[in-house]
Amino acid sequence: MLLLTTIITWLGRLNASIIFIFKYLAITAVAVMTLSILVQVFCRYVLDNSLPWSEELARYLMVWMTFLTLPVVSRMKQHAALDIILGALPRRPALILELILYVLMGAVLYYAFDRSLGFAIKGDRVLATALPITKAWSYMAMPVGFGVMMMVYVELFLKAVVDFVTGAPKSTPLASTIQSEG
Q1: What mean pLDDT, rounded, does the chain reach?
Q2: Alpha carbon 7 to chain centroid distance?
Q3: 140 vs 68, 69, 145, 155, 159, CA distance in Å?
Q4: Which of 37, 40, 110, 137 has its CA 20 to 30 A from that of 49?
Q5: The pLDDT of residue 100 is above 70
């Protein structure tokens, strides 16, 4: 049990660090996306000359923002439907269902990671329409997001295993822990 607790602690610190970075990268992506769109609107309607790259940049930043925030929300356990179902069950059946769901999510995330990584690698051969980059830069958001989500779900799974084995009361939600860290 000590080894498992050590792994959870190490993985929790790693996930907290990555998610801290992801939150600020997502905020930056939204800010740059907003600025890009505002500049585009100004150029199009005031200067009567639209920029060819701003829409594509905003689209790519939207994709990155989405996949950067998925692990953040997952670690905070912000799944309303799951909270309702798990909250209605007694503690042990809720933990068993939670463990099953984490295993299923892990399988889906592994598949999504594998497929999206192959897709991103193929995107290295395709140039973006208006930006001087390949599409791989946009496509890489998927495996990055899915990969970190897998790490988050491993941490959540291991915590649920410890709770199940030790019979500890329901642990405090990670959302309050994360909010106090960040």
Answers
A1: 87
A2: 21
A3: 11, 14, 9, 23, 29
A4: 137
A5: yes
What tokens were used for 141?
């958001």
User: For residue range 34-55, what is the model confidence (pLDDT) as tens digits?
Assistant: 999 999 999 999 998 888 899 9
Residue type (1 letter), 92: R
The single residue listed with the structure tokens 């179902």 is 85
123 touches 135 (CB < 8 A): yes
Per-residue confidence (pLDDT) for residue 33, from 0 to 100: 95
Are the beta carbons of 63 and 29 closer than 8 angstroms? no
**Cα separations in angstroms, 150 against 46, 111, 171:** 46, 11, 21
The CA–CA distances, whole Å, from 127 to 47, 122, 130 equal 28, 11, 9
Confidence of residue 146 (pLDDT cuts 50, 70, 90): very high
Query: How large is the angle between the packed helices 2-45 and 174-181, nearest 10 degrees?
Result: 60
Cα–Cα distance measured from residue 43 to residue 18, given in angstroms and rounded to the nearest whole number: 37
Sign of CA dihedral 153, 155, 157, 159: negative
Residue 38 and residue 32: Cα distance in Å, rounded?
Answer: 10
Q: What is the C-alpha to C-alpha distance for residues 136 and 124, in angstroms, rounded to an integer?
A: 5
Instruction: Give the position of tokens 């899915």.
Output: 146
